[in-house]
């Protein structure tokens, strides 16, 4: 890589780290940058997962105050389900022909853009549900996951291990629907759950997948700072402009990959 390309990857890591701890679409920024540098899609995806681990770790540390509000058993359950799902996703990525992922990637990005676009509607409905509990169904903190929440949490882990872009938004929706928690607390739980998923997938990729370690290292350097900064930003982020830019960037990246 040239010096300018290295700076671009570090910048993508910084931005992706911020997105990891906020809206949860980190790979939507960093993955297209690696593709633009000519890295093959499967190698780029595996390197991207490894490179964003420090961002998820620092983001988890940034949300430590929120995580203390959740029963430990509940946090452990969500983390384990997401990690187990990520094993399946990582295996799918490596077992299927690389052309399958190369073909699916732009459509997965467009699907992520759709999720990001409708996130305000989801958040408003979830916030209304949280702030206006029915007198017949008083607000309470679920201390165990329902079967549906368990299934969808695991499936989100599978998606995170396979591709990951938009997994944070999906996890936010699943956990906010299935658990009576404030959205800021859900953001923290989402961050640690996806850290577990990326950690498991990253370990598998280190031993089995082809990696671009230079790209992964540069992403790691940027995401470490971005993840911690994003945790503080995530507590007060209105993000309408940021969301619009994410959707626009995703559509452009997908269109370029479809050419």
Give the termini distance in whole angstroms.
24 Å
% residues in beta strands: under 5%
The rough form would be described as globular
Largest sheet: none
Describe this structure in words.
- The protein is mainly alpha-helical and 259 residues long.
- The chain has 12 helices and no strands.
- The chain is globular and about 45 Å long.
- Its main location: membrane.
Quick structural overview:
It is found in: Cell membrane. The protein has 259 residues and is an all-alpha fold. It contains 12 helices and no strands.
Show the helix and strand layout:
Blueprint: H1 3-21, H2 27-36, H3 41-51, H4 53-62, H5 64-67, H6 72-95, H7 98-131, H8 147-162, H9 167-178, H10 183-208, H11 213-233, H12 240-258
């Amino acid at each position: 890589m040239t010096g300018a390309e290295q700076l671009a990857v570090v910048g993508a890591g910084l931005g992706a780290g911020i997105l990891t701890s906020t809206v949860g679409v980190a790979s939507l920024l960093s993955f297209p940058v690696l593709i633009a540098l000519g890295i093959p899609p499967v190698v780029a995806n595996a390197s991207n997962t490894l490179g964003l681990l420090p961002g998820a770790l620092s983001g988890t540390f940034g949300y430590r105050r929120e995580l203390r509000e959740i029963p430990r058993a509940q946090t452990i359950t969500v983390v384990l389900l997401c990690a187990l799902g990520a094993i399946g996703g990582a295996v799918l990525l490596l077992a299927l022909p690389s052309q399958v992922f190369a073909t699916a990637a732009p459509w997965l990005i467009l699907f992520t853009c759709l999720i990001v676009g409708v996130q305000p509607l989801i958040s408003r409905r979830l916030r209304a549900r949280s702030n206006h509990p029915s007198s017949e169904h008083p607000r309470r903190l679920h201390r165990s996951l329902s079967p549906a929440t368990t299934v969808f949490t695991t499936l989100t882990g599978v998606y995170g291990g396979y591709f990951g872009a938009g997994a944070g938004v999906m996890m936010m929706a699943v956990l906010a629907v299935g658990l009576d928690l404030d959205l800021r607390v859900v953001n923290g739980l989402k961050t640690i759950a996806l850290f577990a998923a990326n950690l498991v997938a990253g370990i598998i990729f280190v031993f089995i997948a082809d990696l671009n370690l230079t790209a992964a290292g540069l992403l790691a350097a940027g995401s470490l700072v971005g993840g911690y900064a994003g945790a503080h930003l995530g507590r007060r982020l209105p993000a309408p402009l940021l969301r619009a830019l994410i959707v626009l960037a995703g559509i452009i990246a997908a269109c370029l990959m479809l050419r």
